[in-house]
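cron nightly-structures :: item 1 of 1
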Amino acid sequence: MRTPPPVRPVLLEDIRAARERIRGVTIRTPLIKLRHDGASPEVWLKLENLQPVNSFKLRGAANAVAMLSPEARRRGVWTISAGNAGQGVAYAARGFGVPCTVVTIETAPATKVERMASLGVRIVKAPFDACWRAMEEREFPGVEGTFVHPFDDHDFIAGNATIGLEVLEDLPGVRTVIAAIGGGGLVVGIGSALRQLAPGVRVLGAEPETAAPAAASFAAGGAREFEGWKASFVDGAGGKSMFPRMWERMQGVVDGSVVVSLEETRRAVRLVAERARVIAEGAGALAVAAALSGRAGEGPFVAIVSGGNIDLAKLAEMITG
């Protein structure tokens, strides 16, 4: 097991430097108002599904790879991913001419695996438990190179945090920002930016009912595993446990996590497709579902549409089913 560096706060200077570093690789995504049937709440969509790899993960990956030393790049890079982080790291690595390997969950959607392969990566498939364990141990049998952690990495989180800068610039009156929690790197990044610039804005995570370790951790006051974990179409969020290091990172920057049902998530996928013509994968719709659930307090909300890498046949089934 490789010992990671100590956890430290993500400062505004880190976030602003990351924004300059990834400029030209990522795009400044639009913030649009969601038109829905109810008079309230007011919900705005931050469309990270429009990034070049259709996921917010490119922000963190681009910053993390750019920060690697020439020697680290020469060794090649590798990461662990259900698809979105893998695409982000692969895209960034390709820009530097760096070989990339992705250890991916064997049940990852074919669409995401195909898109990773199209970026020229070597793909190694493994069971979910083996991938989750490798994220803790930071090593995997037969895989060499520099490991880019998909969420527990200071530079990765600083890249994610650039979303928070854009949200505040575009909607200064936002009351609550909600983002899906997988490992926690997205919500910690956004929370790190908002706490320093707008400490009165609430920052919430969103998790599916089948995999909600962050909510269990907030309820218990410490990092917890999630009993009864089940795989679902929300493959980009919801782990089996909250990493203690990520729990440490959340302290003071994340206010809690809203648990939503799979049916609420399906309805959110349909709603943003019908009303905004936006394609959101399951994890990408979690924040919208949480904002509309009535369990996240009052708006205006910004819901981070974290990704849109969903198989089109599955999307059609969810919209018409």
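cron nightly-structures :: done
Residues 12-55+154-320 form a domain with the Rossmann fold fold (CATH 3.40.50.1100).
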